[in-house]
Amino acid sequence: MNERVDQAELQNPEHGLPENFGAGWPGRLLFWLAVAFSTFQIVTAFGVPLDRTIAFGVTPLALAWAALAAGALFVGWAAARRRPVLDGLFAVVTLAITVGLVTKFPGGLPSQAVRTLHVGFLCLVGGGLLANHRSRTRATRSLGWALAVAGFLIGAYQWAFYDDLVARAGELTDADLYVGLALIALLFYLVARIMGPALVIVAGTFLAYCLLGQYLPAPLNHRGYGLEQVVEHMAFGTEGIYGTPVYVSSTYIFLFVLFGAFLERAGMIALFTDIAMSLFGSARGGPAKVAVFSSALMGTISGSGVANVVAVGQFTIPLMKRFGYKPAFAGGVEATASMGGQIMPPVMGAVAFIMAETIDVPYVEIVKAAIIPALLYYLSAFLAVHFEAGRRGLVGLPRGELPSAKAALRERWFLILPLAVLVYLLFAGYTPLFAGSVGLALTVTLILGGTIALGFGREAVRSIFYVTLGLIAAGALWVGVMLVLALVLVMVAASLLTRGGRDTLVACRNALADGARQALPVGLACAVVGLVIGTMTLTGVGTIFGNYVVSVGQNSLVASLVLTMVVSLILGMGIPTIPNYIITSSLAAPSLLTLGVPLIVSHMFVFYFGIMADLTPPVALACFAAAPIARESGFKISLEAIRIALPGFVVPYMAVYDPALMAQNTTGIGGPAFAAAVAYMCVKAAAAVFLWGAATSGFLRGPMRLWERAAAFLGALLLVVALPLTDQAGFLLGAAAVGAHVWRLRRVATRPA
């Protein structure tokens, strides 16, 4: 029986709404508003100089208005012939809004205006989704749309009065005060309706502390702040709602979300799945290993664990169930593997971008620190499914039923080009914004060029075409964004004239809308968590918790680490990874730095357990995303996910005591000596993960006896503890446990019947 679940039928647990824009004309209107949102973000992220002359005195802005005028004439012509014009009308109107927004600042929008309009668009799309999917009557639907439009107008307020607000910074008018209050109230409403009450409760508590904290006993009290001062700090400037998280959301995050959306539309998921099936489908417990490997590959382009569960799990979870895995274990494998995507370079989800901005280090340094822990995380998941398959006697798929990796790569190898270029640019020292822009431009160009390439008969000629086109697109941004724009326009025109080209353009348009919808929970979370950051910068409350962590760490660093881990896990019970990281890193990471933990390691420690929080009950978003596909309780899936991911919990602790595990050189050695130290830590951590996985599953080459499991567990523990001679003892004890186990099974196998 085929249990594969259609992705369109699932609700996204990140926002509890279906993966579409709704039915009827409200759905089409919202769809085009999402397209306009993505278009606005691309224009502002690329920094397209709209007032620069292209040729003969013509500017991109003039071309945009001319194209809209032509579109309006076409809509009028179609209406006169009684043809459907609704889509065209919505397209012209919504895109005209985008062009109008950038016309006010043709040389480039100020960062503050980009941030406020970004939040305004988030409110518009979020409110529209609520109106289309949650409203039961015409009145509530109209009210929902009214709130959506109000949210957009609030965001446009600072765009419209930008110069005035800059001139009187710090002095609010009555209108400013009301707009600020309305913004906070509307964000609370949207986040509560879309993402649940937990984040609103946390942010509301911090906001209440700003207003009422002076009445608390010392050391929790502060000097007191008036309503006007709090609103000015939170809703204007860059310290509160429009702070670093929203800046990152409006630039890097949105661009990389679009990058992933375009690659998914181009067939990257199918490519990854075919490769994983070919490599691991026939191995012991093959379907589960396919889930782990394909989710790791998906993590390179999509940093959303929940999105990975929905995208990959609809195929892998039913496959695992069909071959004997229990539904809870199948869901737990997919949830665990998908959450690892947030620490899998190069994209690493939204948190990595926020981390790079927060601690002011190059993004590539975050990527370097994450590579080894990410591989160890997936090693632990891979071993867990391998041992479980051995314990239950599960075999792989027949070779004849598996796809060919060579055939898949031969057909869709060009999809890897954008990812390869992205990795190269990041490690070559370019900014994530530039690398993401090149990756997105290359992806769009290759998708549009796909239909043109079909006109070439021979595979070799098509390959040459793809490589040439890729090099032109990737190199265009070095010359200037105007060349990129010209190249894309040429490809669009060529697609209109080729067979299947219009379908490709429709796919690109749909990817723009999907990107805006997928960025919604990330953007709203970044906006609301700005209230928490604003409270810390205004009142200094973060130092209270920080001082407590430092006081605990003076007696025991392990106790401080455990305390930080527990805070991350507790916050993660109701808060997504991004606000969880922002809050916990603001509270605890500086304290860990004071206790001697290196800067990147302290933030990665918090980041790591913020991800693990999405596997812990009672919320466990990733597990509940897998629940409808596995047809099992999300709570049971969560328990299995924790068991599978348990060996990975030790990795951050090992990195704290020896930062070489995250490629951090704190000893002053260099060259081959440091490389040897990193290699040793990799071997040591892999051995600990292996022993811990065997001990928790109770299976190695066969069922393990209790003393063998205890010895393996103790050996892993000794490898984690950074004390004199513990490494040697751990290796010896682990080797003894494995050796005794293998020797015992050989004796049993050779014993005469």
UniProtKB/TrEMBL annotation:
Q: Give the InterPro entries listed for this entry.
A: DctM, TRAP_DctM-Dct_fused
Q: What highest taxon heads this organism's lineage?
A: Bacteria
What are the record keywords, sorted?
A: Cell inner membrane, Cell membrane, Membrane, Transmembrane, Transmembrane helix, Transport
Localization terms from the record: Cell inner membrane
In the bilayer, the protein is annotated as: Multi-pass membrane protein
Q: Does the keyword Transport apply?
A: yes
- Sequence intervals crossing the membrane: 29-48, 54-77, 89-107, 113-131, 143-160, 175-192, 199-216, 252-280, 292-315, 366-387, 413-431, 438-458, 464-497, 518-545, 557-575, 582-601, 669-694, 706-723
One Pfam assignment? DctM
List, for all copies, the residue spans of the domain called TRAP C4-dicarboxylate transport system permease DctM subunit: 184-494
Stored NCBIfam families: TRAP_fused
Q: Which PANTHER family match?
A: BLL3936 PROTEIN
Function comment: Part of the tripartite ATP-independent periplasmic (TRAP) transport system.
- Protein name, entry field: TRAP transporter permease
